[in-house]
Amino acid sequence: MLEDRPILETPDTQHKILILDDEPAIAEPFETALQELGHDVRSTTDGKEAVKLIDLFAPDLLVTDINLPEIDILDLIAELRRSRPRLRIIAISGNSHLLRLAAQHGADHVLPKPFRVGELNALVEKLLGR
Question: Do 50 and 24 touch, CB atoms closer than 8 A?
């Protein structure tokens, strides 16, 4: 029998993480690895859906690719810095220029692609204070 609670509710002991990347093959292994560390992780390939999830899911951390077709991630990072100052943001990209811009717009950390699962895990733990 299903529990009578909202789908996006999580225990207080977990951190909530949202992964936004337009390539599922990139997002899925990171989602799995972060779940194995005990985090409540959601992922999406759609920037507009990510904006909705930020409001509904209220993540502690956003891991986002910078280069997405349907949304300007740099503008989103700047807006999130103003509206959700406690939200940690990791920007990922294979483009070093975009990574510099993400840092200037307020990303807490930038991570150049390609990177290993262990690198992301360590950075997430550092930013979330575990």
Answer: no
Question: Structure tokens of 69?
Answer: 């077709």
**Assign residue 38 a region: left if phi > 0, alpha if psi is -120 to 50, beta otherwise?**
left
* pTM for this entry: 0.87
Among 75, 65, 85, which Cα is nearest to 18's? 65
Higher pLDDT, 10 or 14: 14
At 58-67, the pLDDT tens digits run 999 999 999 8
Rounded distance between C-alpha atoms, residue 6 and residue 40, angstroms: 14
- Which CA distances in Å does 68 have to 34, 39, 50, 96, 102? 22, 25, 12, 15, 13
Query: Taking a C-beta distance cutoff of 8 angstroms, is the pair 111, 119 a contact?
Result: yes
Burial class (CB in 10 A: 0-12, 13-18, 19+), 61: buried
